[in-house]
Design a protein that fits this description.
Elements (H helix, E strand, L loop, with lengths): L2 E6 L4 H7 L5 E5 L9 H15 L7 E5 L8 H8 L6 E4 L4 H19 L7 E7 L18 E6 L1 H8 L13 H17 L2 E4 L8 H14 L3 E4 L5 H8 L3 H16 L5 E4 L2 E4 H16 L4
Parallel strand pairs: 1-2, 1-8, 2-3, 3-4, 4-5, 5-6, 6-7, 7-8
Antiparallel strand pairs: 9-10
Helix pairs in contact: 2-3, 7-8, 9-10
């Protein structure tokens, strides 16, 4: 996945527009965008939409952001959506690996009841949205085989920290949020999960969004959350491997294939070792997932 587009689970026509947006994944939101008195209706809407959309031959991945474990609403969310077989849930305010273990157990029980294959529904955890979560970022490793991605939330974190803003005058994150972003990136690498950059709130600022997304890609993120369809093409373009990088990756793989026992190979006067091979293979895999390799 490169782009993951949020849409309210009770969004009506917005749901169909999200499917046609070009996003690799659509996240039906039962959390922040749904008022408390609309939760039940939104669950019904999400389940109905999933049952129809899952059967389509060509579709994005379909995820549901449930309400956090501390809210007491997660069970009702899962009761409604697990029988409709989403590809994954997005778990907000995930307090470390323990929260993923807890959510995975809830999913396992409901999969068994609904006749869904055990482990089919994956988990993307919103790893850093609160102050305590900063200290739990390293605990996701080995939490569950369901865990496929980690992301973070600057808006919720800034609210908890009492910040006036999470960005400076140039539009870049201030220090507390750079730390949170770095911890999320490191946590994803440690857990062998996809690192997913957070949302960019000003969806009208496409140039700022592009710059911010390019910086995320540079630093190691491989996907990004979107809050508006206009952001999707930018995300897909930035996170699709470029032809020059892909050619270099193929050359590295080919060089090691010619000399399987080598620890280092030379290409055009430059030396490449085994970590370069791992990176090259990962890049090629991302290109294949994007349909360009």
């Amino acid at each position: 996945m490169r782009s993951l587009l949020f849409v309210p689970a009770d969004g009506g026509a917005k749901l169909d527009k999200a499917l046609a947006s070009g996003a690799d994944a659509v996240i039906l939101d039962l959390e922040d965008s749904i008022a408390p008195d609309r939760k039940d209706a939104a669950r019904t809407s999400a389940a109905a939409f999933l049952k129809n959309a899952i059967a389509r031959p060509a579709r994005p991945r379909l995820l549901v952001r449930v309400n956090g474990l501390a809210t007491g609403l997660t069970d009702a969310d899962l009761d409604a959506i697990v029988p409709a077989r989403p590809d994954a849930i997005v778990l907000p305010k995930a307090a470390g690996g323990a929260a993923v273990i807890h959510a995975a157990a809830k999913l396992a029980a409901r999969e068994a009841i609904a006749g869904v294959e055990d482990g089919q529904i994956k988990i993307v955890a919103m790893a850093i949205e609160t102050a305590p979560s900063l200290f739990l970022a390293g605990t996701f490793r080995g939490a569950s085989k369901r865990l496929t991605g980690l992301t973070w939330g600057a808006e919720d974190l800034s609210l908890e920290l009492g910040a006036e803003s999470n960005r400076d005058a140039q539009g870049r994150y201030t220090e507390p949020y750079r730390i949170a972003r770095t911890l999320c990136l490191a946590a994803a690498a440690a857990a062998e999960a996809q690192a997913i950059e957070t949302v960019y709130a000003d969806f009208r600022d496409i140039e700022g969004f592009r710059r911010d997304t390019e910086e995320a890609c540079r630093d190691g993120f491989t996907a990004r959350l979107a809050i508006h369809p206009a952001q999707v093409p930018v995300i897909n373009a930035v996170f699709t491997p470029k032809s020059e990088a892909l050619s270099k990756a193929r050359a590295v793989v080919a060089a090691f294939a010619r000399d399987p026992g080598a620890g280092v190979v030379a290409i055009d006067g430059l030396m490449y070792d085994r970590p370069h091979l791992v990176r090259a293979r990962a890049l090629i895999a991302r290109a294949q997932a994007a349909g360009i390799a």
